[in-house]
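Thread: "does anyone have the structure for this chain?"

Original post by V.I.:
We have the sequence but no experimental structure in hand. Need at least a predicted one for the grant figures.
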Amino acid sequence: AVGGRHPRVLQSEDHLAELTEVGTMLIDTIAIDLPTLTRALRPASPGAPDDLSVSEVPIHEPGVGEVLVGVHAAGVNRSDALALRGVLPGVFPRTLGRDFAGVVVHGTEEWVGRRVWGVGGSDLGLARDGSHADYLTISTDAITEIPTTLTYVDAAASALAYFTAKAALDRLGGVQSGDWVVASGASGGVGGAAACLAEWLG
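Reply from O.Q.:
Generated one for you, tokens below.
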């Protein structure tokens, strides 16, 4: 997992609760405290994990329909390793990473201060900068509030696998209690997630 530096006011759950109550004032406060640079794992060309190093790059200002997430944890998937080696398509240099979990620190009032997680769709970490950074600019369509039962690390470590598995089960017509589900490759991330979801559904 990759942690990050965030505005000091966002470092505890107590502060998050206070900030959520502030409403409109919260947006102004965070906007003032936002840095202009973020640390990121940003390979300049295809290579191996040993070639990775941390760079400082400008933060992309959120546009319409986007928010800035202070990343507390980011998952590392097989697709990240393939992207690093140049097996998956994508431009270099770029920031890797697809899974993320953190707090919205800038954007619409609806989202600021909320704990969120996601995988960013098919282009995050491939066609555009990904989640292996302190901050991530992302569409509001690509974030979901983290359940209170999950930590940041839990959310970041499970997002891609479980979201993919849930989508696959839904395409099968939905799984109900009493159904049998055969999950090939259950030792892997998505297959294992599918097996867990099926067991949970009964």
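V.I.: this helps a lot. The first helix runs from residue 13 to 22.
O.Q.: and Confidence is low (pLDDT under 50) at residues 1-32.
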